[in-house]
Specification:
5 helices, alpha/beta, 124 residues, globular, 5-stranded parallel β-sheet, 5 strands
């Protein structure tokens, strides 16, 4: 939490998605920090200690998001990690996302009410 606001780290290589999610989060009193790759995300994670992580599946590599989630688990991260991907529904149907170190999966594009509902449930 920073200045009384929960901090959400969002990793995505699509700046339009980052901008769209930032508008949703900041309009609802969350602070968002962003990264464009798993490597950059790791540094931002260490610098900001976010309360919630939102990760795209495909960035510099096809499975960069799941590799990042696994690395978070190894580092002892306790913040919820959710995948936001255009293949979210099929990933949710065909894979046990908990084995990937995820707390849930969202389908792109995400409806603001869905995102805000999960944030409220997980962060209070």
């Amino acid at each position: 939490m920073n200045d009384g606001k929960h901090v959400v780290l969002y990793l995505d290589d699509d700046q339009d998605m980052l901008d769209a999610v930032r508008i949703i989060l900041e309009a609802n009193d969350y602070e968002m920090v962003e990264a464009h790759s798993a490597e950059e995300g790791l540094q931002v994670y260490k610098d900001t200690n976010p309360d919630f992580l939102l990760v795209d599946l495909m960035m510099e590599e096809v499975d960069a998001g799941t590799n990042f989630a696994k690395e978070m688990k190894v580092l002892g991260n306790t913040a919820p990690v959710f995948m936001l991907s255009s293949v979210g529904d099929s990933l949710d149907d065909n894979t046990d996302y908990r084995e990937l170190g995820l707390d849930g999966v969202f389908q792109k594009p995400i409806h603001p009410k869905t995102l805000l509902s999960i944030l409220k449930k997980k962060l209070g």
